[in-house]
Protein: ABC transporter related
Organism: Hymenobacter roseosalivarius DSM 11622
Amino acid sequence: MELQLRGITKSFGPKKVLHDVSFAAYTGCCVGVLGRNGAGKSTLFNLLTNVLLPSSGELLLDGVPLGETFPVAVKRRMGSLINQGYLVEELTPIEYLQFVARIYELPDAHTRIESLLAHLLEDYDTVRTKRLSSFSTGMKQKVAVASCLLHRPELLILDEPFNGLDVFSVDRMLALLNSYRPQAITFVSSHNLTHIEKVATHLLILDESEVKYWGTMEDFLQGQQAYLNDALFQLLQPTTASTQDLTWLTNQS
Ligand SMILES: Nc1ncnc2c1ncn2[C@@H]1O[C@H](COP(=O)(O)OP(=O)(O)OP(=O)(O)O)[C@@H](O)[C@H]1O
């Protein structure tokens, strides 16, 4: 699969959030999407999943323009977690994933559901019969990610999938994403650069509504002999924080 963005621009009223975003990603790529708060990462993901329409430019899948409404056949090839996902909390995790499996018309998803949940959820035997409403934030996040993978999407879009996960759960999630990577084009956003370093093959760095960097992780780090954290700081050169008088906050008296 090849996903191509050609000159994608997105504005909300007079505010241009993304300007002339162009790149092409292929099966096997895991694109780490980075940028400051408000850089346009979620907006990009919403465009990739047809939740939002671009103001101009086009998306092409295997050379075919996707148009205003993506064909259902294309949507079936996608799995996405955006804006923390949505779960039906009255259901148990198994019931919820069975519901998702029916949407994708998976004939027998039982094995997939059990193995995904058992991999991601600690204490699975205890929590498997509990309603999602009783789950912690991190547990819900794992079920949401599992629901994106169930139908083995060729395009996997995960907005902040590590949110709410403890260090052990992050390791499991990274292992899962790394093992899945060869089968799909994966997009992952995170503010945790250590996680991105461990999963991304490519980086898309957004800043001031434009693509500041698009290319392989290797090329980005090469020559800089730096960790992603340092390299990103160098690239984005954050303006020094304004000096506010915060003595009222720290004053003991
Ligand atoms: N529906 C909307 N209407 C108006 N402005 C919007 C809308 N959605 C996003 N924006 C604006 O677009 C910009 C990019 O937002 P977006 O959520 O894509 O950023 P982000 O990179 O995902 O940020 P964060 O790292 O904080 O999650 C922000 O300035 C935001 O206020």
Observations:
- The longest helix spans residues 167-180.
- The radius of gyration is 20 Å.
- The mean pLDDT is 93.
- The CA atoms of residues 138 and 166 lie 8 Å apart.
